[in-house]
């Protein structure tokens, strides 16, 4: 259903810049993270745009993007979520070793893992998306009945070379919006999956805190603390993790929201 939004990306004219994309109309949801570096704006071509001349070809854009995202999404999300989950589990378990409130721990874990997974997925998926989308849309346009019947060549008043050049320029017209849309979908998916994975990875930690609260017992046993708790308790108070020090997790959320608002 998300991919249906992309149908509005195709420009309505054959030579001017395309109309505003679905990406600019409704920015996809994302997760907290240090804002990734701005991607360089994709150059717009100056050649023929077949979708402007033949609106029925707009369906190929959605089809190509669907296939592309299916090809790229699983390996990118799997790798990004795996790295983000392990990193977040280790960081949060240590930073919150003395924290008795599992909800604070869960919130920080979500902010960190969404930040890491979303940023890594965004960085890893753009070039594979570019490659796969270019191949998929080129193949679909070449196989279009209007191309096979010679109607496109007749409209362009040219031969096979002119048709091929028009196909290539058409791909370039829609590529920037396709990349933005596909990256946003993969970034969101990675952040969502990583959230579920980190909750599973920290389930024992959450349960320990709930159990202590239900028994009305202190979470940190002063006589027999865990090794991680002992290491933190041995630190001077001045450098022990505190509420102020853990505000770095909130800064991830703020930076990510700023990044999303700019898209």
Structure description:
- This protein has 263 residues and is mainly α.
- Helix content is 66%, strand content 0%.
- It contains ten helices and no strands.
- It has helices at 22-25, 50-53, 58-95, 102-142, 145-148, 151-156, 160-201, 203-214, 227-233, 247-261.
- Helix 3 (58-95) runs parallel beside helix 7 (160-201).
- Residues 1-37 have low confidence and may be disordered.
Task: Provide a quick synopsis of the model.
The chain starts with 21 loop residues before the first helix and ends with a helix.
Question: What is the helical fraction, as a range of percent?
Answer: 55-70%
Query: What letter string, H or E per element, gives the SSE order?
Result: HHHHHHHHHH
Estimate the mean pLDDT confidence. 79
Distance between the termini: 21 Å
Quaternary structure of the protein:
single chain
From the helix content, strand content and strand pairing, which structural class follows? mainly alpha
User: What fraction strand?
Assistant: under 5%
The total count of strands amounts to 0
**What does the overall shape look like?**
rod-shaped
How many separate helices? 10
Gyration radius, rounded: 25 Å
Biggest beta-sheet profile? none
Contiguous runs where pLDDT drops below 50 for at least 5 residues: 1-37
